[in-house]
């Protein structure tokens, strides 16, 4: 049954390509109807999800709202490509999030960029005297109130109400504390970490898609890591400013294009790396013989 659905997806994508090609030649074609829901259901129910195929399907047809949360967690690397492990992985991520929050509560520095102004531009320029500390422990209470994370696995979306300005700032500051004090204290900041409006723009979209604080944090973290060295690979080039107030659909397209561009780069570099290793081994062997 699963093989049948997988074949259906491949046929649908191939048919979509042929349809586009025929249209460029001026040949009249009949558009075939593709059951997008069934396509994602089939692909995500495989024993091992084919992530490159998932990216291709999402780029061709778009991710349906019912599968958006699950697909984002998988594509961002928060979840492994093994559906049987998803519940376990989310529990482990949640436990790790609790540890991060507990440590960040102690290690955080003041957020001197905070402001009560309704204008984000004014908030960015404001330098509140003394700065602000956040109560990160509130995030654990909010996460526990939601119960388990089953809705992410069954297609549940994010919060119906948009995240408040303070909630976005808190998520951004939590990540900054995590990156600077826990994960990578001796490394440079990721691209965009000095641009608060870019960070809040990413946080806003992530919070709109995912319902739980731990899911939001890990997805936000992985997306920033992806954009750090992947955004420059997208053609045409996209500036950080374009993500200040982007909508979910537009952000998702850029997210997918970045994943695809990075995968293509890694695939292109793989043969060169193998050849370099082979040459290095041959050189060392020849050097040993000469000695």
What's the gist of this structure?
The protein is mainly α and 291 residues long. The chain has helices at 2-24, 36-44, 51-61, 65-75, 86-107, 120-125, 137-145, 150-153, 165-183, 196-209, 213-230, 248-290.
Note the topology:
Elements: H1 2-24, H2 36-44, H3 51-61, H4 65-75, H5 86-107, H6 120-125, H7 137-145, H8 150-153, H9 165-183, H10 196-209, H11 213-230, H12 248-290
Helix pairs in contact: 1-2, 2-3, 3-12, 5-9, 5-11, 9-10, 10-11, 11-12
What does it look like?
With 291 residues, the protein is an all-alpha fold. The chain has one domain (11-112, 165-270). Helix content is 65%, strand content 0%. The protein is globular, with a radius of gyration of 22 Å. The model is unreliable at 26-32, 114-118, 124-129 and 287-291 (pLDDT under 50).
Task: Give keywords.
291 residues, 12 helices, mainly alpha
User: Which residues sit in consecutive blocks of at least 5 with pLDDT less than 50?
Assistant: 26-32, 114-118, 124-129, 287-291
Order of helices and strands: HHHHHHHHHHHH
User: Number of DSSP strands?
Assistant: 0
**Spatial separation of the terminal alpha carbons:** 61 Å
Shape: globular
Percent of residues in beta strands? under 5%
Number of helices: 12
Q: How much helix, percentage-wise, in residues?
A: 55-70%
Radius of gyration over C-alpha positions, nearest whole angstrom: 22 Å
